[in-house]
Amino acid sequence: xxxxxxxxxxxxxxxxxxxxxxxxxxxxxxxxxxxxxxxxxxxxxxxxxxxxxxxxxxxxxxxxxxxxxxxxxxxxxxxxxxxxxxxxxxxxxxxxxxxxxxxxxxxxxxxxxxxxxxxxxxxxxxxxxxxxxxxxxxxxxxxxxxxxxxxxxxxxxxxxxxxxxxxxxxxxxxxxxxxxxxxxxxxxxxxxxxxxxxxxxxxxxxxxxxxxxxxxxxxxxxxxxxxxxxxxxxxxxxxxxxxxxxxxxxxxxxxxxxxxxxxxxxxxxxxxxxxxxxxxxxxxxxxxxxxxxxxxxxxxxxxxxxxxxxxxxxxxxxxxxxxxxxxxxxxxxxxxxxxxxxxxxxxxxxxxxxxxxxxxxxxxxxx
Length: 367
Fold this sequence. Notes:
Elements: H1 7-28, H2 42-51, H3 68-82, H4 88-100, H5 105-112, E1 122-124, E2 140-144, E3 147-158, E4 165-172, E5 177-182, E6 189-194, E7 202-211, E8 214-215, H6 221-253, E9 255-256, E10 259-260, H7 265-293, H8 299-324, H9 334-348, H10 351-366
Parallel strand pairs: 1-4, 2-4
Antiparallel strand pairs: 2-3, 3-7, 4-5, 5-8, 6-7, 9-10
């Protein structure tokens, strides 16, 4: 299999790196600081919109390019590489990609309006207490004629308070699973902030007969979950690659007993393990994204990528901290941002035990 990125993905990656790097530099230098809240670097987010990167996955009729999962993956990887405090994972992987599959043209137009400029933020409430991505959500959707309402609890919802629309997987009275759409300020919806390692905003949603706007036709709950896991792995791919680059630079320049740390055999072996973990995550994530892009069955690749994120990426990050010595414990050093981001991404996909259970169940069925 050829894992070489296409010309379009290479150009998207290059542009995303350029925009994010320049925006972050201006932000830290004071430009745009008034628009950057602790939860979100609004200046950086708007720069992505101005560059046209946020509209790549949108349908052509909405001013987009319909480039799909691979282009989105390129953007999310650069977001992870910069540990950017922006709602890219929520808006692109959890919002734009699933909504773009909707067969309801009017609903699609309504949800994706102004997303390309960064004015609209989307997210999805995929996690429930004790089950990060339930096949049969405990959240219930009750329909009366053309109207419907939701009742249930969702946890760890990214950027829920800032979102214009929230996608909510739910189970109907006839035990069918649907993806409903609600507004954050809808009646019967309570939004409570919860803690995260990176301090990026997460919320618990409590829905009590909350009216819904509509239902996505054309995207299943499992497809939404696949977009979520693949997107999280893309962000982790970028974060681990940046941590590896940072650590490699450190051990090349740091000397001990008159020699660079990189020349010690034990150090060389450990950084090689980090490289192997980073490279494997990149390849399996690319494979999962390619299968999603081409409408192939991506379930197994997504499960493997999610497990790799849950198990091997935290180990690789700890090795990076270890190889930095005391500097690796400094919370103001860039490595801390990557580590905190990875911790949240592992929780987002359900943790290593849940990912292993899902992968094991799939292998048992396939056998």
